[in-house]
Amino acid sequence: MSTIDTVLLAGGLSRRFSNAAEGALPKQFCSLDGQPVFIHSLKALESLHCFRAFVCVVPPGYEKLATHLVEQHVPVILRDRVHLAVGGERRQDSSSNALEVLERFSPIPTRILVHDACRPFLSADFLGRIKASLDDRSYGAWIPVVPVVDTLKKIHNQTVVETLDRNYVQSVQTPQIFEYEVIKCLNEKIKSRPSLSFSDDASLCEYYGIPVGTFEGDPRNIKITYDFDLETLKRIVMTELAHEVKLSSCELESATTCTD
Which helix (H) or strand (E) holds 9? Predict the structure, then answer.
């Protein structure tokens, strides 16, 4: 039987997020529908009921705040399964720090899921596709992808060099899924090569020739980078909640009709 753990990457300081310039909290701690962004991601993944533990990577100096927010917003039954790690200078350093926490677990995980905590909206359909990929071990790694809708151009020195065929490229999202021993081994390899830098964990697999499978992502799986991204997600959440209330009302009305 597989043991699957989750790594939530929330170790950045939100330098591109406008509120950061005002000394406000990093975006992963900002409120979305009354809860911190990273808590939304945590609870959405927990709804799959297939993870043993969650390792949340937070910026240095924010450990006490993260602990307080977990205690405030996470049910007791889940709280003991949430662990903290401190973020590193680069994404791969943060991932490596999380893996060191997982190394202390017994048994070590069979697979892990790595998710950007600032992608807090995971729809039911998308979660279903994530679960299917967690169960499929035909690839050492799985990533969600979505079609590119904009025209893509290669630029050099502010001049267009080439228009790329967008039929051959896709945007990559998280969560990404990995065989634990594979991603752990690759993380150990790059520790001796500090000049290498990767924008996501799947790029590490690609660099070392590990096949990476893809599954359908979700355009609503927005990563909060700028302040307007958070505002967009607030509208998405409100729309989703309104839809759920409407469905509940319809079900109640149908049940009342049947009773009559």
Answer: strand 4-9
Q: Is 116 helix (H, G, I), strand (E, B) or coil?
A: strand
Q: What's the CA gap between 190 and 137, in Å, rounded? A: 24
Write out pLDDT tens, residues 85-118: 999 999 999 999 999 999 999 999 999 999 999 9
**Which domains are seen in the chain, by residue range?**
4-259 (3.90.550.10)
Residue 44's nearest CA partner among 91, 96, 100, 113 is 113
Is-contact 119 222, C-beta < 8 A?
yes
Helix 63-73 to helix 37-46 angle (10° resolution) is: 50
Residue for token digits 């997020």? Answer: 17
Residue 63's Cβ-side half-sphere holds a number of Cα atoms within 13 Å equal to 8
Q: What angle do CA 219, 56, 222 make, to 5 degrees?
A: 10
Q: CB–CB of 180/110 below 8 Å?
A: yes
Write out the DSSP string of 212-244. EEEEE--TT-----SHHHHHHHHHHHHHHHHHH
Q: Which two tokens stand for residue 70?
A: 């977990």
The label of the residue with tokens 């662990």 reads 83
Task: Determine how many CB atoms are found less than 10 A away from the CB of residue 131.
Answer: 14
Q: What is the pLDDT of residues 148-195, one digit of tens each?
A: 999 999 999 999 999 999 999 999 999 999 999 999 999 999 988 889
What string of DSSP letters covers 65-114?
A: HHHHHHHHHS-HHHHTTEEEEE--SSHHHHHHHHHHHHTTSSSPPSEEEE
